[in-house]
Amino acid sequence: MIPFLPAETNPAIILMVAGVLMVFFGPRGRGIIGVIAVALGFLQMYSLGVGPMGDAQMYGITEVAGYEFIPLRLDKLSVVFATIFHIAALVNVIYGWQGATKVEASMGIVYAGSAIGGALAGDLLTLFVFWEIAAISSVFIIWAGGGHAAFKAGMRYLVIQVMSGLLLLAGIALHLVRGGSSEFGAFKLVGEAGVDPVAALILFAFGIKACFPILHTWLQDSYPKASGVGAVMLSAFTTKLAIYALARGFAGTDILIPIGATMTVFPVFFALIENDLRKVLAYSLNNQLGFMVCAIGIGTPLAINGAAAHAFVHITYKALLFMGMGAVLLRTGTTKATDLGGLHKSMPWTTAFTIVGAMSISAFPLFSGFVAKSMITLAAAEEHMLLAWLVLLFASAGVLEHSGIKIPYFAFFAHDRFAPSLRNGAPRPKEAPLSMLIAMGLAAFLCLLVGFYPPVLYGLLPYETDYHAYTLEHVATQMQLLMFAIFAFMLLVRFKLYPPEVRSVNLDVDWFWRVPGRKALMAAVQMTADVWHAIWAALRDITGQVLSGIGAVHRPGGLLARYWTVGYTALTTAAVLAVALLLAFLS
């Protein structure tokens, strides 16, 4: 443990405190604080010790109102996610050293800390706290992108994220009320009595952040609206925290297999026709999450190892691709495929690093994606899930088409949009700043390190494994798939059948609540207003009639304003007294 820190200090707290301190410093100071915070958090986590699955190291256990809080639980599942979250935080700090605004730098470290805290949380209530901090801190990163579009996307993002948190809190409350343990463990979705509504509620909360089908569009809506630096930060944490939560709480839940398989397929078609390359990456992110969700649904040790490994490598190569597009955005002001091309001539390092990311996400042998994705496909094959296996193979080919080829081809090659004849003599865009290149180089190095030497990753995985990625069968199958996909792309381009890059807005399922949904909401608001006005008018009429009746009795000349005879007064008094005596007798 670190000598000057309390023994049970949560690494997440170190990063979050650093994020607050960064507000008071300039760019260089913020960068130094960020690097130190990440290093301290990493050292603190590994100094406490890591337990095997089922025998975690617990720290800071307290009991409040009969509920046990475990703010720090270290086992191999939580630590592999917390490790890559630390690495992603470091890459983000370096990448944004010069370009990150104060809000992005500060909230980015808080955001990373919340993801680490969620991964290390041993109880459900601690998980909820970090779950919500991640939502709140990340929305500021979206807003930092600037402009009305970023603000509106941030508001929509916040609504979805808060909804996920409220569903999670409701599920936790119901779980605790019925006598469940506060410890964050496995839930059983389907029991002898059928589907457990509490487990379903918690699964739904996790599914929102994991971008289950129909619930996925917040990702494509918000991430491309952030700045080049902000999108890199966003790509790493929220969705992978949800993947960790699913692996911890719902491993082996059968329904996740078709959900994950669907997630791998449908984004491929959207990505192929999308013009904004950062939005292509957002759809690609959704596609890659599908592999992890499917593996969690399979639930075997090999599949869980595959999900954890894929989450680890995905964060690195997806961040690398977003960093490449962030550099392009910085130098050209756009990531639209129709406005790019030919950048390899003036941005060679960015081009090379982006190609490394593209080959990694495509799962080429000797790159990180291959050593992780092959574990998931093998897990499906071992469980004789032929349909799932075929879907994963198809999705792997689709990844090569939209991320492995489309991103580098249209951004850096294709037509030279920056030729002097087209730019009217304007200079070509410059290479990315040094800090961005260092961050991209670090991510590319990790992609190659894991690809060339898989044991460096396999040693971190939740279950002991003797898996070997580089067997003749695995390599041959993957290379056949990749070569077929490349050949298909070449034919489609040659015969002009590949979907053209056009300036357009592609509709997704969010159209249903952003167009007819908005109209339905406005109609409901108008109907509510009409009902309220009708009720208010009725109340006003009734009140007027009551007041008129009272006035008729009390006004001058009214019943109570008249002179009464002594006898009538005495008779009335006697009647009132009789009623009072009768009531007293009955009581």
From TrEMBL:
Its main location: membrane. Residues 121-396 form the NADH:quinone oxidoreductase/Mrp antiporter transmembrane domain. It holds the Pfam family Proton_antipo_M. This is Na(+)/H(+) antiporter subunit D. It is found in: Cell membrane; Membrane. The chain crosses the membrane at residues 6-25, 32-49, 77-97, 109-127, 133-151, 158-177, 197-219, 231-249, 255-273, 285-304, 310-330, 351-371, 386-413, 434-455, 475-493, 563-586. It is a multi-pass membrane protein. Keywords: Cell membrane, Membrane, Oxidoreductase, Transmembrane, Transmembrane helix. InterPro entries: ComplexI-like_HydComp, ND/Mrp_TM. Coiled coil: none annotated. It comes from the Bacteria.
